[in-house]
Amino acid sequence: MTSDKRPPFPPFTDETAQQKVQAAEDAWNSREPERVALAYTEDSEWRNRDTFLRGRAEIVDFLRDKWQRELDYRLRKELWAFTDDRIAVRFEYEWHNEEGQWFRSYGNENWEFDEDGLMRRRYASINDLPIGADERRVAV
């Protein structure tokens, strides 16, 4: 994996912050851990629920495991706020487990970017709600 630059770059405007959020949504919906990890610095710090990660290799391993458990994962992100090098988003995603139980997971993320547009910190708080298949909002 390389540490290419990832436009748009800070400082963010409303337009470029929206572009960053859409790019993240698109990448996560690919369910390709290596693709997702390229948006983060080599030593990126994460808190995802109660899991703490550091670096792209840990991110890739985490996402592989996540998408083996969270089947037919589909995500929507919404820009909440931004500053020069930080973005806050609200999100929800739907998935089901091996037994067929559907969930909608809600959360907030705080992102911090370096000058090359790579995310150096990601802090996510997430809650899961069991739902029926007929309650789904996100198309797979």
Automatic annotation (TrEMBL):
<dbReference type="InterPro" id="IPR009783">
    <property type="entry name" value="DUF1348"/>
</dbReference>
<dbReference type="Pfam" id="PF07080">
    <property type="entry name" value="DUF1348"/>
</dbReference>
<feature type="region of interest" description="Disordered">
    <location>
        <begin position="1"/>
        <end position="29"/>
    </location>
</feature>
<protein>
    <submittedName>
        <fullName>DUF4440 domain-containing protein</fullName>
    </submittedName>
</protein>
<dbReference type="InterPro" id="IPR032710">
    <property type="entry name" value="NTF2-like_dom_sf"/>
</dbReference>
